[in-house]
Amino acid sequence: MNKKELIEAIAAAAEISQSKAGNALDGMIAAITKALQEGDTVSIVGFGSFLVRDRAARTGRNPKTGEAIEIKASKSPAFKAGKALKDAVN
């Protein structure tokens, strides 16, 4: 499912126009992004949690030359599925 199909599904389920559903989806994405930038976790009960995970610095290899390279520490967005979502998929 791509973004357009998701907007169509939201519009049908909520009985609203696709433009309003698109605005709502864009607003949700923006709110989640802002919260993660600020270091917060976004939890949606029954669905899951969006969070930021820290990745430690590590040594990697250049696949072309085989030379060891240092990969610096970074932060990565992650999603942890809630129990209800896990049960629905299984």
Write up what this structure looks like:
By secondary structure, the chain is α+β, with helices and mostly antiparallel strands. It folds into 2 domains: 1-39; 41-90, IHF-like DNA-binding proteins (HU Protein, Chain A), CATH 4.10.520. The protein is 43% helix and 30% strand. It contains 3 helices and 5 strands; from the N terminus they run ααβββββα. It has helices spanning 3-14, 18-37, 83-89; strands at residues 42-44, 48-55, 58-61, 68-71, 74-81. The strands form 2 sheets. A 3-stranded antiparallel beta sheet has the order 1-2-5. The protein has a two-stranded antiparallel ribbon with strand order 3-4.
Helices and strands, with pairings:
Blueprint: H1 3-14, H2 18-37, E1 42-44, E2 48-55, E3 58-61, E4 68-71, E5 74-81, H3 83-89
Antiparallel strand pairs: 1-2, 2-5, 3-4
Helix pairs in contact: 1-2
